[in-house]
Design a protein that fits this description.
The structure holds two protein chains of two kinds. By secondary structure, chain A is an alpha/beta fold. Chain A has 22 helices and 24 strands. In chain A, α3 crosses α19 (about 475-485), α9 (about 120-125) packs parallel to α17 and α13 crosses α14. Chain A starts with 8 loop residues before the first helix and ends in a 17-residue tail after the last strand. Chain B is of the alpha/beta class. Chain B has helices spanning about 40-50, 70, 90-100, 110-115, 120-130, 175-180, 195-205, 230-235, 285-300, 315-320, 335, 340-350; strands spanning about 60-65, 80-85, 105-110, 135-140, 140-145, 150, 185-190, 210-215, 240, 240-245, 260-265, 270-275, 305-310. In chain B, α1 (about 40-50) packs across α7 (about 195-205) and α3 (about 90-100) runs parallel beside α5. The chains are: A alpha/beta, B alpha/beta. The interface of A and B includes residues 73, 506 and 534 of A.
Chain lengths: ~600, ~350
């Protein structure tokens, strides 16, 4: 293999698995260290810069970082990254004087934002300080989009939304709330320099089964029902409730129903338990509230008698896999199951709908009736129209909406400056030795043996009695510290300098996870088989040095490195060093001069 | 010195031996020796060898004297018995322990100061008594703890870190062990685990005194140009006589070798040592020839390593003394001290 090029920012970025997995590439270990150091406001600002909604995401993020967390590969569970973000938000104090202010001078460019959800708000946050005039349109009376309409208050209190949406609107964003955009053509005619579409995927998918429309007061679309609950239009539900669907919306539906009078609430899913789309922790929390999840049942009919819903009829199925591993749900032939109920919530997916975009104005739609959007620039086929969030590629989640928003903001900024939007600005990358003394590092390199801490929950009786009472209480400072200490600091990289190595084996001998091997070079697949410990995960890089004195090379499997510094501590020549890798993805604005104030390590 | 403990987390696919233990279970505390010390590599080799031999850690006793090398038993086999003795007196303590309990596996770790200077007499008698033990000398040619004076194993002409040339004749402990009658003599290098681990395994399986002179560079005081015990010098001048595979138990031997290139030695427990010859015509069973070869290579400026000599099934200390089969430590007071009447009978028999 060729010696690894560690000057390529992607190499060490990939080693920080959590940051690499995060769509917004938040520097996770960096903020976890800040939390451990009780620098909550600093941790909050780092998050705010990167993911815009730390308090909201600290409660609701889909957390792609956690399955990626290296800790989960060495012991049972990853670091509670998401909940440590909430800790930063909970204990940050007043950070308003650290936020950018609306600029005194505008740059004369106008941008329209369609939809007031996380994608549009991110574009607004990134562009407002640059002097753009932003106009945000939303049908609802308050900005926030699906964050406000879909996420139940027991998971995300209203004041957290108000606070973080407020930080953005306070940057001088003009809002046109209660306004529905009905024609893209006329919006384009208003001569905005750019239009960003972040209106989400607002339509709940329906189930066209017999009886669907026979009891309209008792069969609801989950998405609409959640919005009605959120805005206080719906305050109760029947005693027996069936929720159809296995995604996170279904979980929000069932738990909301449980708080509005539903006593026997069950979730019924076509697929098996493990294939359900809902995040594992959301399923867990629903089950803890006494909600059974019933699998392999396909709804066939809504039984309605005299306009009153009696129940739902289900067919039992089993999963069969064909030669290509594709799953089919095949009826088992067992008798159908009739489940009596008073209300049904249909949460089987959500769809995009763009009835307000004319099809003859230069915005091309594909055969699924979705706009064609560039995945990097977020630009549609119309040069001034950009898409982001669920509106761009279908329903995803908040953190993806934020990532789209950042990219769209960069594109809009480049467009308005008359630059090529395909030329993306590079991230800021910094790699600094953490050595402070012979065996002293500027980070806490002791690896904690603690298992993942659970976030305390409010007791069921209280939690289930009021839909506005937040279930999770958040970590206290002591637990947050202990949980933060579980982070391996994967951003503190093991950097190897081959010309200093005397091949004494000290690093291989001390490495707790047998990452390091000195051996003859070879092709990667063959080399992987010759290492000190199995290295099957080809997505995890091998760090290969140049030739050493004996003609061998140093090969380090990055997969299970604990970043404990022992290789560097036992190295007599300093061939190993621990260097902190900091990567901040580019944001809209004029190069580095607009970067936020420098943070100390 | 490293202050942090080694993390308990390990590679999830770490192999287990027949006792269900991983290599990590054979480790000790984190080393407090200088970073890069050859001794730490030897500790790692010992850990690997005992793990691969499936030996229960609590049936092992590790003994040492004084010095950098003698600190190392803290850094391996944390669950074994240990005795850190007086300077140079490890062999006496090991002999006593072995007499008291012949069922433990004994590993003595010493250094060139501990064994070639203050404990030279002790070393000699452990060899000639053929105490059933592994005796490893971690040989770096300097007194590291007192800042790098030449030790008795420093070669004539070697330069110290301060530029002083050694003029005193050096003691070759492997050659001495041969002369003194040790039944297993090897030399190795801390930087070559492929050679060292099988040698330690063979030494453990061998019955009798198994001596390994292991050159172990002192990174702080003896790893410079002009040193004859530096990583670079030893790598350049290392001439192995053979390469060893240890086959535990009565496993079938399947590998094919050219006739005459492999020597097979069956040990008392049925395990097999397979020696691939690297020096032509080298006879590992010929004590005199081994001695000649070592000295011939030394004169040529080279270092002969590998398994240098293994005797025919030797008689160990217990056989020579005709002790009972059961460990003395397991005998009851009545058996150990049969009383006045028995003494009278014995005395009477001698009158």
């Amino acid at each position: 293999m060729q010696p690894t090029d560690i000057r390529n920012p992607d190499y060490f970025h990939k080693v920080v698995d959590c940051q690499w997995a995060c769509p917004a590439h938040t520097a996770v270990p960096e903020y976890i260290r800040m939390v451990a150091g009780r620098r909550y406001a600093d941790a909050y600002m780092l998050n705010w810069q990167s993911n815009v909604f730390p308090g909201i995401l600290g409660r609701t993020c889909d957390r792609p970082c956690e399955p990626a967390c290296r800790r989960g590969r060495v012991e049972k569970e990853p670091v509670a990254i998401c909940r440590l973000k909430r800790v930063a938000a909970d204990y940050k104090g007043d950070i308003r004087n650290r936020l950018p202010r609306a600029p005194a001078h505008r740059n004369g460019k106008r941008v329209a934002l369609v939809g007031g959800g996380p994608a549009s708000l991110t574009v607004a946050r990134d562009l407002a300080p640059e002097g753009y005039e932003l106009v945000l349109f939303d049908t609802a009376a308050r900005a926030g989009g699906m964050i406000r309409s879909q996420i139940p208050k027991f998971r995300l209190p209203e004041q957290v939304i108000d606070e973080e949406v407020g930080y953005i609107l306070d940057l001088g964003v003009k809002t046109e709330l209660g306004t529905t955009i009905t024609s893209m053509k006329s919006l384009l005619a208003e001569n905005y320099d750019a239009i960003f579409v972040g209106c989400g995927a607002p339509r709940g998918r329906d189930l066209d089964l017999p009886g669907r429309h026979a009891a309209p007061g008792q069969i609801h679309l989950g998405l609409d029902w959640l919005a009605s609950v959120a805005f206080g239009h719906v305050k109760e539900i029947g005693r027996r409730v069936i929720v159809l669907g296995g995604g996170n919306t279904a979980m929000d539906c069932c738990r909301s129903a449980r708080r509005l009078g539903g006593v026997e609430v069950s979730v019924v899913v076509r697929s098996g338990f493990t294939e359900m789309k809902a995040s594992p922790w959301e399923k867990e929390e629903a089950m803890e509230e006494g909600i059974p999840i019933l699998n392999f049942l396909v709804p066939k009919e809504f039984r309605v008698d005299d306009g009153a819903l009696k129940g739902v009829l289900f067919e039992k199925v089993a999963a069969q896999y064909d030669a290509n591993g594709r799953r089919r749900l095949v009826p088992t032939g067992e008798p159908e199951v009739m489940m009596p109920c008073d209300d049904v919530l249909i949460a089987v997916g959500q769809e995009n709908a763009f009835p307000w975009i004319e099809r003859d104005i230069g915005i091309t739609f594909d055969r699924w009736d979705m706009p064609i959007v560039d995945e990097t620039t977020m630009q549609s086929t119309h040069p001034r129209v950009f898409f982001g969030g669920d509106a761009a590629f279908g329903a995803k989640n908040i953190i993806w909406a934020v990532a789209h928003g950042h990219e769209a903001a960069i594109s809009i900024d480049l467009l308005c400056r008359g630059e090529d939007i395909a030329k993306r600005p590079p991230p800021l990358v910094n790699l600094v030795s953490q050595k402070m003394g012979i065996h002293e590092w500027s980070y806490d390199n002791v690896v904690s043996d603690d298992l993942r801490y659970r976030v305390p929950h409010r007791e069921h009786e209280v939690a289930l009695s009021d839909i506005a009472v937040e279930v999770e209480l958040g970590f206290d400072e002591e637990t947050a510290f202990a949980e933060a200490e579980r982070c391996f600091n994967c951003d503190v990289q093991t950097v190897f300098t081959d010309r200093l190595c005397i091949e004494c084996d000290a690093c291989t001998d001390i490495c707790p996870t047998d990452c390091i091997t000195f051996t003859a070079n070879g092709e990667e697949p063959e080399l992987r088989r010759r290492l000190a410990a199995p290295a099957h995960d080809i997505d995890q890089a091998l760090y290969v040095s140049g030739g050493l004195k004996t003609g061998r090379v140093m090969v380090k499997d990055e997969n299970l490195c604990l970043h404990c510094s022992l290789c560097a501590e036992r190295c007599p020549t300093g061939a190993w060093d621990m260097q902190r890798f900091l990567l901040e993805p580019a944001l809209a604005g004029h190069g580095c001069s607009h970067r936020p104030e420098k943070r100390a390590a | 010195m490293t202050f942090v403990p080694k993390p308990k987390l390990s590679h999830p696919e770490l192999p287990k031996n027949s006792l269900g233990l991983t290599r990590r279970d054979y480790e000790g505390a984190v080393s407090t020796l200088c970073a890069g010390c050859g001794h730490d590599s030897i500790s790692a080799a010992i850990i690997r060898a005992f793990f691969e031999l499936d030996l229960p850690p609590h049936r092992i006793a590790k003994l040492s004297g004084i010095g950098c090398s003698s600190k190392t038993p803290t850094y391996f086999l944390g669950r074994a018995h240990g005795f850190n003795s007086v300077h140079g007196r490890m062999p006496a303590v090991a002999t006593g322990a072995n007499l008291a309990n012949r069922e433990l596996v004994y590993i003595g770790v010493s250094g060139d100061g501990d064994s070639a200077s203050i404990g030279l007499g002790q070393f000699a008698h452990a060899m000639r008594r053929d105490v059933n033990m592994v005796y490893i000398v971690e040989n770096n040619g300097v007194y590291g703890l007192t800042k790098g004076q030449f030790s008795a194993t420093a070669d004539v002409g070697a330069k110290s870190k301060r530029g002083v040339t050694n003029t005193e004749s050096s003691i070759d402990l492997a050659a001495m062990a041969l002369v003194l009658g040790a039944s297993f003599v090897a030399r190795s290098f801390s930087g070559d685990k492929a050679q060292l681990v099988p040698l330690i395994k063979a030494a453990v399986l061998h019955r009798g005194a198994a001596f390994i002179d292991c050159i172990s560079p002192c990174v702080a005081f003896n790893n410079h140009a002009g040193s004859t015990k530096s990583y670079d010098y030893v790598r350049e001048h290392n001439e192995a006589v053979d390469s060893l595979d240890v086959i535990i138990g009565r496993e079938e031997i399947t590998a094919d070798y050219e006739p005459g290139t492999v020597e097979t030695v069956v040990l008392h427990d049925g395990s097999t040592l397979r020696l691939r010859k690297l020096a032509p015509d080298y006879n590992v069973h010929d004590r005199v020839a081994a001695l000649a070869h070592i000295q011939d290579r030394e004169r040529a400026g080279e270092i002969a390593t590998g398994l240098l000599y293994v005797g025919p099934e030797s008689k160990d200390l217990h056989e020579n003394l005709n002790t009972v089969a059961a460990p003395l430590a397991s005998l009851s007071d009545a058996e150990l001290c049969p009383g006045e009447a028995a003494l009278e009978t014995l005395n009477a028999a001698l009158r």
